[in-house]
Amino acid sequence: MLLEIDHHSGVPIYRQVIEQIRQQIMAGQLSEGEQLMSVRELAAQLHVNPMTISKAYALLEVEGLVERRRGVGLFAARVRKDKKVHTKAKLLEEILRKAAVTAVQFGIPEEKAREMLAKLYRKYDSRTRSHSNE
Amino acid sequence: MLLEIDHHSGVPIYRQVIEQIRQQIMAGQLSEGEQLMSVRELAAQLHVNPMTISKAYALLEVEGLVERRRGVGLFAARVRKDKKVHTKAKLLEEILRKAAVTAVQFGIPEEKAREMLAKLYRKYDSRTRSHSNE
DNA sequence: TATACTGTATTAAGTAGCTAATACAGTAAT
DNA sequence: ATTACTGTATTAGCTACTTAATACAGTATA
């Protein structure tokens, strides 16, 4: 597991941790039941206070993505695949809802909005693919 | 001009003011050159400090959406139509960018994402049309 | 000039959020 | 029990942001 923190981005550390771990679990880079780095280990790696990591882990547990066992460690939760698909779709839908509302309010036609989305999708998709050639 | 403030939403008052006025200008509900409520008038209506409104107005001026004239009042700026179109597209693009990144990260195919957007668009579009029968 | 409106610069108080220090609590193996 | 790991509750300090109080400044009109 590799995480990177940008201390100057303005985004709180614990949120950066959450987003990256959530991303890894959703993308299947972290397997079910797999143990994650301990609070202190990750805190040392990121030069951050252990409580900051603990807070991130706690919120990930609320999301149902990890399971904390005091005295033992932290593990990627066993998320049923169909539930994972459902969760991902819901997260995306929330963002798309905002986009749809905005487009309608601004009188931007559906076709135009779809084209914009497609163009952006391809942009980030190609970046991801080229980066994965390592 | 009618604004509504939710004091319990967690969204700062001045931001709510900005968003609603920006929305009204972009949607064409506020005409070019039209005078807006004075700082103190709007502040009284919303039960808020005048400086809070002044701050919102100042930021709207930075966006180029309004023009402040000390001693006179605040007016909807004369925005060239093509510039308005451009601005609207940019605002929408920022939201769609988030959606695209999320979809790619989650491995949700482009087709699926576009369908979700189309469905949501139609949902809100029909609502708007039916509401405009007043 | 006087008045009655406009908007505003400065300052301060209040609040919420983030991070960290400390001391504590659970687990497993010896 | 001891050791050496796990995670955590409490507390406190810091910072950034938001809001408000006050006094000030520009404009138009009589």
Say how many strands of chain A there are: 2
Count of all domains of chain A:
2
Counting DSSP H or I runs of 4 or more residues, the number of helices of chain A is: 5
CATH topology (level 3) name of the largest domain in chain A: Arc Repressor Mutant, subunit A
Q: Could you spell the SSE succession of chain A in H and E letters? A: HHHEEHH
- Category from helices, strands and their pairing of chain A: mainly alpha
Helix content of chain A: 55-70%
Return residue spans of chain A where pLDDT drops below 50 for at least 5 consecutive residues: none
Which properties best describe this structure?
homodimer; 134 residues; mainly alpha; Arc Repressor Mutant, subunit A; 2 domains; two-stranded antiparallel sheet; 5 helices; 62% helix; DNA-binding
Structural summary, described in words:
The structure is a homodimer of 134-residue chains. By secondary structure, the first copy, chain A, is mainly alpha-helical. Chain A has two domains: 13-76, Winged helix-like DNA-binding domain superfamily/Winged helix DNA-binding domain (Arc Repressor Mutant, subunit A); 81-131. Chain A contains five helices and two strands; from the N terminus they run αααββαα. Chain A has a two-stranded antiparallel sheet. The mean pLDDT of chain A is 91. Chain B binds a DNA duplex (30 and 30 nucleotides) through residues 10, 12-14, 38-40, 48-52, 54-55, 57-58, 68-74.
